[in-house]
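User: Study the chain.
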Amino acid sequence: MRIPELLAPVGSMDHLKVAINAGASSVYLSGKDYGARKYAANFTLDEIGEAVNMAHLHNVKVYVTVNTLIKQDELEDVMNYLSKLYVMGVDAVLVQDLGLVDLIGKHLPNLNIHASTQMTAENQLKLDYIEEKGIKRIVLPREMRKEEIMQLKTNMELEIFAHGALCYCYSGQCLMSSFKGGRSGNRGTCAQPCRQKYRIGSIKREDYYLSPCDLSLFNRLKEIAELDIACIKIEGRMRSKEYLAITVSNYRKALNKLKAKKELESEEISLVFNRGFIEGQFSHQSKRSLRAGHIGLKIGRVIDSHKNRIAIRLNDGLENIPEKGDGLLIVKNNQDYGFEISQNPTITTLNHFKKGKNKEIKDLNRKDRVMIVKKVWQNKKSNFNLNESDAYLTKRNKLAKKVKEIENKGNSFVKSKLVLTFSVKNRFPVLKGRMTLANRKEIQCEVRGNAPFEKPLKKAADVDTIKKQLSKTDSYPYEITQINVNYDGTLFIPISKINELRRNLFKSLENGVNELYRHKSKKIKLESETNINGCNQTNISYYTNSLKDLENISTVKRVYLEIPNSNDNLDMRFQGNYNLNYMVSFLRKAYEISLAKDYELIWKWPDIAHDRLIKAFNKVRGILNKMHCSIPIMSNAFNGEYGPYSMNITNTQTVESLENYKIVTLSPELTKKDYEDIITYCSNPNKIEILVQGPIELMKSRYALLNENELKRNYENNLIDRKNNRYPIHKSISNEEIIIFNDSELSLLDEISHLKSIGFCNFAIDGRYKDENHYKIIDIYKQALSGNIDKKELLKYSPKNTFGNYK
């Protein structure tokens, strides 16, 4: 069983100290740019250097997030930023951008790369590609299940999220914030539209449909260790020091218990910020949060409520009994009522309460306890009947003391081992230190005092006195394992000089640790050649999931065909094996229709494809090949033939790194200037395609939208926001993922002439889930490429359009 590394989030220097003291093995942080949490405090370059030195002194590793998508005009800047991080000695950088991976391999080959969860590496094909690139560790998507992780085969280290917020969408695949709020999660500025309330179809009541409960695998640490997971990650660079201290310290205790083959339970992690906990897809759990903010520790249920009191039956085994000054939250259906306890509650038994005695009990650990809280004038009035409500403890004053202790008195999880040797040479004191770090590297230093020993007038400085002074570690995270004293104890020197000698050695050892990790500075200059290869011809591609479209479509270069789910409802419960016969039949009919057509038929796989689905697809391919129906594939597996826009391509370096692809589609998040920059420096414009018309896939999720009770009724497959915008929802052929589309279609009809003039030649239109005449948009774009733009005709088939991020 492998005890995993405990990785803690750090948003500031104060947070770093807390994380180290609480027992983190490693920390992850971000600079002011290129990190996926731009609105955290984050670190300047000087602060990162200081953080690296402090962490390494405490045997804690530092990973810096450089996990945003990199635009064309940022490539050289980000590479020189990475070079500075390498010089400082960071232990690894987290990267999302595939092109950046190649640039690091070329210019900074000794800089360790961890593949960010933003890469969405959910299957073995992607892991194989990533490993070939020399990446040391992969952060798996939060949506991976235990049995899926067990089947992975890789020499890379595996890292998983164990605690913290869950996004509704797969990381790296969410475009909702970008298209609805103008702030891209892939660029570190997510506006968190998932934490807002929505309606589904004809359900009138709003709810947090896109806001899952928080993740906690605290009770699954033994299973995680048995999976040979290298690292577990705590999420929360924008959360409080209290959250960090309590969460990290509890996970550290639990991991230490695992070494002794014991397990630990904890109520404390529920007392710091959380939206309620689930074990997520690791344990096939899906549940939306009751509220957008903190909900706390569930302590019991309200059994009685009058004007001046609330009676709560406490859960048996509850350890954290609320006290004066603590915070309570009462939740019932879609309503909640929170307040601070103004007077010490009365704790009695259920039996006493029923008899109306309310006699206070001394044994607070007994069963059937009832807590009576008095409502006084400081408490605001509740606007609903509190009876039969759930009660939560949201604030625990006692925790503040513990947090303070961790912040001020804690120490590193692993101390360096130090052997000291004291001697006198030519009457001057000399102190040597041999220090062994947690990574087993050794540092040796020697310092010489500036004051000589003298003959004693009264009392000599004996050996025990010398040892006593040398045994002090001050505030340094050193464990002195041995002190050798080569001195006969017959001379005198002021004690202050021995202390000064010790401090000088400790400082030299600290400098030695810093130098151990440092590297030589390197200025990086990227060669940028302008595009000299023009397009062969302009082409239009069309996305569809309709066989009828295949019959009607003509004069396009490619058709990307997706197999529609035959049961496109919102029920996410997996029903067993995939319907191979349905998929084979659908594709065979498509192949036969397309034989007489002048377009190339390409089978588009879902953007999210776990290994179980890929195995089924490969069976379908095998059957089709035996029928002599060979169909090329559109897949974002990093090593394929045709690449969809979900691959998040935002620079030419990524285009070039995906060398096996014939065509790749650029990210629709790009602006007009970004498109211009890319085409200027793209060595092969025939390889890139841009989406010019169609609804954008805003979210892809493995979490259910509706619970079992809600599924008993039929609803329109639409997500509806407070402005009454309706976002179509469809289910993937996997039966395990749903896709939420934008309410408007991206439309670059007005810009098609410009895009053609600057060198783009491949344009795509997405016609999936559209009516039978939608394919006629192809002719509208054909005319536009010839200079005739007919916006009125477009509105017949696409009445609601947007430029998206283009403008």
Observations:
- Residues 297-395 form a domain with the Elongation Factor Tu (Ef-tu); domain 3 fold (CATH 2.40.30).
- The chain has 21 helices and 34 strands.
- The chain has four domains: 5-166+213-271, 297-395, 418-517, 539-698+736-802.
- The first strand starts at residue 5 and ends at 9.
